[in-house]
Amino acid sequence: MSTTADLFAWDDGVLVRRKVTQCALSRVCGGCGASLGRPIAFVGAAAEVARNEFHAPPLHATCADDVRRRLDPGWDVVLTSGFEYVRPAADDLDKEPRFRPNSLIG
Q1: Are 61 and 94 contacting, i.e. CB atoms less than 8 angstroms apart?
Q2: Cα(91)–Cα(35) distance, rounded to whole angstroms?
Q3: Residue of 60, 77, 58, 79 lying closest to 68 (CA atoms)
Q4: CA 20, 77, 67 angle in degrees (round to 5)?
Q5: pLDDT in tens, the chain (106 residues)
Q6: Cα distance between residue 2 and residue 69, in whole Å
Q7: Where are the domains of the chain?
């Protein structure tokens, strides 16, 4: 059984909000914690891909494969060269921070 203990933004498979924010503001990978370059990868369910908003933080493309393998092989991967970090407003139905990729790649 593979462990998720060493995934930077997750604790026992659950996103840690403080780490998610750190990934956004410091531009570090949610998988390994190292600085991000390009392309940037996001992983998520089909509904997240369809609305182009992800709860999981940005990742290196190789880390995205590792995160999917460990947490949910059914997640899709979206590659981008940039993103916006969306903090929930008081009236948002979704109270979790989200990432909106821009400049999608292929």
Answers
A1: no
A2: 33
A3: 77
A4: 55
A5: 345 668 999 999 999 999 999 999 999 999 999 999 999 999 999 999 999 999 999 999 999 999 999 999 999 999 999 999 999 899 988 899 999 999 989 7
A6: 9
A7: 10-105
